Amino acid sequence: MSDDEIRKLLSDLPTAPFIWSPPGTVIIMEEKVVEAGADPQAVGVWVEGHGGDLDRTLPVVATRRGVTAIPKPKGKRYYVVPEKELIRSDAA
């Protein structure tokens, strides 16, 4: 995907209402990128290359005493995207 295609994709996707996101950023869940048919790895490279970050939500952990062979759950991946990077040049 090109730079502009990723920018358009991200600007069209819904954002997640995370209260801990840094000012001037939006949160976009990786699952929304996948649902849109895009390559999440390519989007992650684009986000990091434009001053953003990748992270995971905290997993919900169920505990049981005496059980040690249960794999630890992983949180959902999301992108922290600077809002200024979502402004398309053709929008001006």
Describe the 3D structure.
By secondary structure, the protein is α+β, with helices and mostly antiparallel strands. The chain has one domain. It contains three helices and three strands, in the order H-E-H-H-E-E. A three-stranded antiparallel beta sheet has the order 1-3-2. The longest helix has 10 residues. The chain is globular, with a radius of gyration of 16 Å.
Report the total helices. Answer: 3
- Beta content: 15-25%
Helix content: 25-40%
Structural class by SSE content = alpha+beta
Number of strands: 3
Helix-strand sequence: HEHHEE
Radius of gyration: 16 Å
Assembly category: single chain
Q: Largest beta sheet: what is the strand line-up?
A: 1-3-2
Shape: globular
| Low-pLDDT ranges | none
Distance between the termini: 22 Å
Q: How many distinct domains?
A: 1
- The average pLDDT is 86
User: What can be said about the biggest beta sheet?
Assistant: 3 strands, antiparallel
Briefly say what this structure is.
The protein is of the alpha+beta class. It has helices spanning 3-12, 30-35, 40-49; strands spanning 25-29, 53-56, 77-82.
Which descriptors apply to this entry?
single chain, 92 residues, alpha+beta, three-stranded antiparallel beta sheet
